[in-house]
Specification:
Keywords: Lyase. It comes from Novosphingobium malaysiense. By secondary structure, this protein is mainly alpha-helical. The chain contains 2 helices and no strands.
Length: 84
């Protein structure tokens, strides 16, 4: 019974989550400003993923069946030497 109570308490503690905003610990500083920028970015800017991390699709998907063009690099594999 005691083990069940301990497990229930641990499960309850594991379910607790921090609801406060992220902040720096005392004595910590944000990273220095990037090269060419005069002011440091704030925490919200640092948490935004850069454009390269989430690229947008730049090509249109094919919406219907179309014949493929000949691909000059689509070559068959070289034949393996046959054992004698």
């Amino acid at each position: 019974m005691r083990k069940i109570a301990v497990l229930a308490i641990l499960a309850g503690l594991a379910a607790c989550g921090q609801r406060a905003d992220l902040s720096l610990k005392p004595g910590q500083q944000l990273p220095p400003a990037p090269y060419g920028r005069s002011e440091k970015p704030d925490a919200a800017e640092l948490l935004e993923p850069p454009t390269l991390a989430i690229p947008e699709r730049s090509v249109e998907l094919r919406t219907r069946s179309e014949e493929r063009e000949d691909d000059p690099f689509d070559l068959p594999p070289p034949e393996a030497p046959q054992p004698e």
